[in-house]
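2024-03-11 09:14:02 INFO receiving multi-entity request
2024-03-11 09:14:02 INFO entity count = two
2024-03-11 09:14:03 INFO echoing inputs for audit
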Amino acid sequence: NAGVTQTPKFQVLKTGQSMTLQCAQDMNHEYMSWYRQDPGMGLRLIHYSVGAGITDQGEVPNGYNVSRSTTEDFPLRLLSAAPSQTSVYFCASSSPDGGPTNEQFFGPGTRLTVL
Amino acid sequence: QKEVEQDPGPLSVPEGAIVSLNCTYSNSAFQYFMWYRQYSRKGPELLMYTYSSGNKEDGRFTAQVDKSSKYISLFIRDSQPSDSATYLCAMNSNDYKLSFGAGTTVTVRA
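2024-03-11 09:21:47 INFO inference complete, emitting structure
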């Protein structure tokens, strides 16, 4: 099993550009999430999905869109990049069978810089 | 005020020392408490979890929860250079979303 994979590993954008961060998992997990990690701020939830066709907003959703057409994939779209979106982005998946702690399995991250 | 507060450190200790990490929280609905470990340039991985007040041991690691004080701790005994990482506390209230602390960066010097 590859687990959770993310592409690209690194990306540099100019202000106003759009792009899609890809995330895929091969563990047949129903739940998938996107987090951003900034120094001193920890992991903050951007959007999450509890199954194909179902998405919801997390703590910091502004400027990002998601969709979930399959169980395996959960892309994150930046609509018009801003310097404040410079961050490390992590995708995670989990299973409702994993117990109440909802153990998250994280991908390796995408380091995004917006100039 | 954040729901979960964690001192980001950094913390530097000699090999063999005891490492003490802690988090405080404000949401009394939190029932499940976790510690994730994140090596440099990697995603976090679950290290330990507990759901009741008291101690839980796993090898050199001990997780402690005091719900009355809204305070959780992680102790690492006989620390090794391989323990050098960022440790994030996380907690939830039996729903999907986890609330994470800022993470504490630990370096164990050989």
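2024-03-11 09:21:48 INFO post-check: Chain A touches chain B through 23 residues (CB under 8 Å).
2024-03-11 09:21:48 INFO post-check: Residues 34 and 105 of chain A are 11 Å apart (CA to CA).
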